[in-house]
Design a protein that fits this description.
The chain is mainly β. It contains no helices and 11 strands.
């Protein structure tokens, strides 16, 4: 059974940093495509970053240069390093996984498995 568990969210002032983690269970980590997504109140869920099984990375324009997606295969864990945070980054952040080879894919509808999310709040 595939499980994804996020952690690392919290409250931070604008300009600060956070690192989100997504621990995964129940599948061969290196063979799945993975992504980070966020949803702010009243808004649709949007893709933040994607990493394909070959390590290729894609970022939403709104986070390029500030966020970094990475993974540790030994720990079966996905990360999202967030720097220079802005109030508009405030949202519930979720990780997702899919067994297909998804490169440059930030559409939430393309991912099969989801975690519960972790809240990130950035104050000005």
């Amino acid at each position: 059974q595939v499980q994804l568990v996020e952690s690392g969210g919290g409250s931070v002032q604008a300009g600060g940093s956070l690192r989100l983690s997504c621990a995964t269970y129940g599948y061969f980590f290196d063979s799945f495509s993975m992504g980070w997504f966020r949803q702010a109140p009243g808004k649709e869920r949007e893709g933040v970053a994607n990493i394909a099984p070959d390590g290729a990375k894609t970022y939403a324009d709104s986070v390029k240069g500030r966020f970094t997606i990475s993974q540790d295969s030994a720990k079966n864990t996905l990360y999202l390093e967030m720097a220079e945070l802005k109030p508009e980054d405030t949202a519930m952040y979720s990780c997702a996984a899919d067994p297909r080879w998804l490169r440059n894919e930030l559409r939430p509808s393309e991912y099969r498995y989801w975690g519960q999310g972790t809240q990130v709040t950035v104050s000005s």
